[in-house]
Amino acid sequence: MILKSKKINQTIKENGKKTQKWLHILKAFLVGGAFGLIGQGLYELYFQVCQLSQDEASLLVSLTLVLLGVLMTSFCIFDNLAKHGGAGSFIPIVGFANAMSSCAIEGKSEGPIFGVGGKIFSLVGSVFAYGIVATYLCGLIYYLWRVIL
Amino acid sequence: MNSQSVIVNHVYLDAVGIIVGKTEKEGPLGRYFKNSIKDSYYNESTFELAQKKLSNQAIRLALLQSRFESKDIDIAFGGDLSNQIHASTASIEQYLFPYVGVYAACASFNLAIILACIYIDKMITCNALCFTSSHLGVSEKQFRYPNEYGIQKCSTNTTTITGGVAVILKRHKDKIKISSFTIGKIVDVQSKNVNDMGTCMSYAAIDTFKTHLKNLNRHLNDFDKIITGDLSFYGSQVFQSELMKENYDLTGKYEDCGNLIYDSKKQDVNAGGSGPACCPAVTFSYFLNKLLKKEYKRILVIATGALHSQISYQQKQSIPCIAHAIELEVNYDY
Fold it and tell me: Do B149 and A123 touch (CB under 8 A)?
């Protein structure tokens, strides 16, 4: 039996509306900002204290944040943080690390090949695929721009 | 003869076995759940094995309470949410009784009871075992995201309960009787939103409710409580308001098992509980207790299920919903 009415869809739409929008935005800002602050702190540490070059320091910052994300996922901290953080926690690189490691943890019971190896990219696979396509297109446009001018 | 709603005369409740998880034990109905597990892995290596063990343990508890032994059980009906209802099938591998696997998502248990009623009432068997189980970790992995993935849930999302329920029905007279049932039809409101299944399912529940009353000439006052399975906070509001428009005033007469099992203010469960074990775990503990104390004489239990699959949802197909109803009453002759 198909029940089609605009009112039902309206109800479902209204139920899904987020309340306390500004609180969500504030929380996301604070969590995202905190990760940014940690990143900057690490950068200063590597650049000023450890006397590394700018490039090396920024690379190490990303790597350290990825490690932090994986550790937080493994100790069941990240999902509880993300409940409040929302986009503030999944947009930074720690969120990317969480998406990969959570899939790997989930796939562990299905073995190293089809489980961990096969499932690790199930959420972030599209980021890689479209990321590569986008960089390729950007590179092509840049190249053509240089040739024409 | 009406094939959708059927009156049964000789089906009685023999024994109940319920085991729940930690969050459910800590919920408002905690004192009604005698058996619970502390760790969601239940001393196993995966959530899937834990669910199998929950199902198995529920059957064992029911058999302990029952006067039947496992070799006396004539037939078993079981189902759950895991892929190809594997948890149910695997959980009874040690037993010798014939088994029928059923699937109606969160209404699986009511469907199992309905089939058992037919078997017992038509004198095909003397008794039947119905069982189900659900596990938060298994459902999250299968229908949503990895358990550790950090994502904000919608306020309309429900939380699958962790637990197992088994019930043994028999032909011999006892205190609680199953007096009739209604098999629901598929109701599709053309919604594609898997984050708000409660609202979609409420229309199936409304249809089954009205069909049951109409076909069996029942009146709303014949029931002490109308119970739905897992319509969530939002779906139960729709259920009440839509029926109000048709002059069924459910004020004080209606409860939703998913809303009862958790305290949504204190516990982090969003819009309430769901899962195949949710409805029977509350019905056969909290409401059964009320029936045994004779506070209620007759209740109508409507379990609802959203019959989508992971693929159908990704292909943006709408969610077909179903609701099966069973009527429980106190047997005053006993």
Answer: yes
Amino acid at site B82:
S
| Pairwise CA distance, residues A121 & A93, whole Å | 15
pLDDT tens digit sequence for B274-308: 999 999 999 999 999 999 999 999 999 999 999 99
Chain centre distance of CA B45: 27
Q: Which residue of A has its CA nearest to B185?
A: A1
DSSP labels, B85-108: GHHHHHHTTT--S-EEE---GGGH
- Which domains can be identified in chain B, with CATH numbers? 10-170 (3.40.47.40), 176-330 (3.40.47.40)
* pLDDT tens-digit readout, B50-101: 999 999 999 999 999 999 999 999 999 999 999 999 999 999 999 999 999 9
Residue B187 with chain A: CB contacts under 8 Å:
1, 3
Residue contact B147–A90, C-beta within 8 A:
no
Q: How many CB atoms lie within 10 A of CB B136?
A: 23
Distance CA B248, CA B255 (A): 15
What does pTM read for this prediction?
Answer: 0.92
- The answer to whether the CB atoms of A102 and B190 lie below 8 A apart is no
Token match 């009453």: residue?
Answer: B329
DSSP string, B115-173: HHHHHHHTTS-SEEEEEEEE-HHHHHHHHS--TT---PPPTT--EEPPEEEEEEEESS-
This complex has an ipTM of 0.86
Tokens of A101: 């490691």
Q: What is the DSSP letter of A18?
A: P
pLDDT band per the 50, 70, 90 thresholds, residue B320? very high
Nearest to B166 by CA among B133, B188, B139, B211: B133
Q: Helix or strand or coil: residue A2?
A: strand
DSSP strands (E only) in chain B = 5-7, 12-20, 35-36, 76-80, 99-101, 127-134, 159-160, 163-170, 176-182, 225-228, 254-256, 273-274, 298-306, 321-330
Tokens representing B147 are 């358990």
Query: Which residue of A12, A85, A105 is in closest CB contact with B148?
Result: A105
Q: Please answer whether residues B165 and B123 qualify as being in contact, where contact means their C-beta atoms are separated by less than 8 angstroms.
A: no
* Whole-number pLDDT of residue A14: 82
**A vs B: CB pairs below 8 A:** 94
Count H helices and E strands in chain A, helices first.
8, 0
